[in-house]
Design goal:
The complex is a heterodimer of chains A (368) and B (134). By secondary structure, chain A is an alpha/beta fold. Chain A has a single domain, classed as Thiolase/Chalcone synthase (Peroxisomal Thiolase, Chain A, domain 1, 3-Layer(aba) Sandwich). Chain A has 14 helices and eleven strands. In chain A, the strands form two sheets. In chain A, strands 3-2-4-7-1-8-11-10-9 form a nine-stranded mixed beta sheet, sandwiched between helices. Chain A has a two-stranded antiparallel ribbon with strand order 5-6. The mean pLDDT of chain A is 97. Chain B is mostly beta strands. Chain B folds into two domains: 50 residues, no CATH class; 84 residues, OB fold (Dihydrolipoamide Acetyltransferase, E2P), CATH 2.40.50. Chain B contains two helices and eight strands. In chain B, the strands form two sheets. Chain B has a five-stranded antiparallel beta sheet with strand order 6-5-4-7-8. In chain B, strands 2-1-3 form a three-stranded antiparallel beta sheet. In chain B, a hairpin with a 6-residue loop joins β7 and β8. At the A-B interface, α5, α6 and β5 of A face β4, β5, β6 and β8 of B.
Amino acid sequence: MRDVYIVGGALYPAGRHYGKNIDDMAAEVLDKALAEAKTDIEAVFIASSTAELANKQQILGAYVLESLGLDKIPVFRIEDGDGSGGAAIALAHHVLKSEEYNCVAVVGVDKPNDVLSNQQQDIYATTLDTYFERYFGITPLAYAALMAKVYLRKYEYRYEELAQWAVLMHKHGANNPYAYLRRQIKIEDAINSELVSEPLRLYDIGPLADGAAAAVLCNNKKDGPRILSASVSTNAIPFNLRQDYDTLYSAQEAAKKALEKAKVTPRDIATAEVHDSFSIFGILALESLGFVKRGGALAAIREGDLPINLSGGLKSRGNILGATGVYQLVEVAWQLIGREFKRVDGDYGLVHNMGGVDRVSTVVVVGV
Amino acid sequence: MKHESVPIYWRNIPHYYRLVAKRCKKCGAVYFPPVIKCRCGSKELEDFELPHEGKLVEFTVLYQVGTDFLKQKPLVIGLVELSNGVKVVGQIVDVQPEKLTQGAKVEAVFRRVMVDGKYGLVMYGYKFRPVDGV
């Protein structure tokens, strides 16, 4: 089976893009990525979490191609909530491995700012079980808060230590030209921010942002970083029946498979993008993916500047819902070759993209 | 999230009103929300009403809520362990959040969950309240 290379990539600056339609944003990044790749594509995998709910658009891929005058190309829409992008990458990778196609594009796009913020909360909550969780007013934020409480109590951390996550993310995000919130913050900013679901505060949440990202993947051109493996895993245990609340089971399983397939260990990873839709998820991801020992993530952050989420993560780059995984892939690829980011010292990078509260995770290992 | 669907609500009434779960006839595993196949492989599942008493394992006071719950803000969301060991997450009501403590004894109560403003559909379900009051 032939290897899969990232031969082109493009990102839309995350933010509020009131002047754009969702298909136009996706088309713009796809066009840019195709120009860089200098190749034809045989299929498009488009990831979006909320196109129907926030933008009232289905069959999104066809309208993206219409905008570029591209005809007769098959389009596949992938929806796994805010884990859609990772799932689309994994699927594209598998298809290229099977050699059904030689070159395909993965496009991630979401535009939550087409609706008001209260409606965004409603829409984001549909990533939970709509009948038994969302119905009762439970939201991903409430679950993140419960997990944060369990974690802080179990490992005897203070909230102030959790708030370091936001400081680190903003420090990294300040260097990312595509980040939504490009500024450094002080620990006081996080600690004094509005309480949203105790113990979590406003700075513990990755702000929802409009954005689009595209990557052109080929198995017949040896240009650019290589995707060594991509694994997806689902956690089918409902939140209330979980064994414990300080493990991201989907991330743990996807990482185990992806690292094994790529024949690398967490120690070989020079840069990683993890899904910190809430600060506690970033912490739990570091532990569940095997980068630090259980209960050790906050201590590790205290002791050093980890090469995690150099993009600023969902906290600073922004949570672009279904596009997040595609952003992460392009960011890690660029960090490995020193494009638009400082080059990291190492040959391997990892992407962790998660849908909902530990419902589904994709882990992708990239190498140069 | 206007407008909630009547059929969705109607078919879930046994679960919403009486905490009806599914229990595997073969191995005894209990599922809430209900499933159609047990992890032991059996498809022989029966309705099973969960106990209505339990204790509060963990809780959070949620200030950022969806459009259906704006008038009830903040919501107290708790992870409750029922007397048979099965856990359920739900709203904790009739409390002053600052006085609520982990381990508090709670009981399930039947309450209004939301009202659809456009069609006036009132939807009900279980919530939990501290037995000894706080």
